[in-house]
Predict the 3D structure of the following.
Amino acid sequence: MIVLTSLVVLAVGFWLVFALLGAVLKLVFGIIGGVFSIVGGVLSAVIGGVAMLVVAPVVALALLPVLLPVAFLAFIVWAIARSSRRPDVVVMPAAQR
């Protein structure tokens, strides 16, 4: 009976040691994975920002034929609305005597 109890205690001890080792490894690799995730996110944001800076002028030039008539129409509407407005009334202070 003592031999069986000592084998059970030994097995439970090994199980606890390996469970603790697994928890420590899981924590360490989780932290390492989190660091890599943060570094990857920052790196992709930088690369994406540079790519947007390169692509944005090309897209703006490609959309220029569409945007010019719209801008011209907006300017015409603004000019008509501004010209049909009455001039602002300016109140001059009374001259002191």
